[in-house]
Amino acid sequence: MMRLSASETVCLTALADLMEEYNVVTTEHLIRCLPDDLSHVFTALRGLSQRTLIQSTAQDILTLTETGHCFARQAQRQHRLLERFLFDVVGVPWTLVHREALRLTPMISQPFYERVIELTRHATVCPHGNPIPGRSDRPADEYPLTTAPLGQRCRLSRIAECACYEPHLLQRLWHNELLPDRALVRVPDPLYQWVIRVNQRSLVIGQRVASMLYVVVDRE
Ligand SMILES: [Zn+2]
Ligand SMILES: [Zn+2]
Prior knowledge:
This protein is of the alpha+beta class. Helices cover 42% and strands 15% of the residues.
């Protein structure tokens, strides 16, 4: 089994997170998500491509190869378990768990990771509601908020992991209490397409954000 460097693991996680939401992911898009050290990102991308885990087209569109998918799934699993551990056990604030998990990735040893697995053994999703690979899958009956039925009581099932690469967006969601499990109703509005009622308040949501929020209809 080949071993990836810390930057390669972070790049692979971010690429897989973006590919879950966007049909097309370019190198530029990925770089915008990982602004820390550009030279590391380029070295990591070169390493991943030399090991044929990713491919890029002439238009700089990135894709995962079949082997790349397997590695990415492992990387996403570790990331989401680490988020769960940081949130539940360490008490890191919700808006920071994603960033802290990425920062911790290079430091994780196998014995530490085994403790993380043990201490999060009941968790099936990360603190943003995204399924932990190997423990759960996306709910089959979820909708993006963009297509949520009007007037029906829904529950926010998850916030796409790619939203976590935008700290300001996470802050806004937190501020508006738009967190997993929150009950909400999409209501008709003469001016805006996506208006929801949450905790007796109305919120107008833009299309981009609405497409990153997933809901399931409450059946009771
Ligand atoms: Zn994350
Ligand atoms: Zn997450």
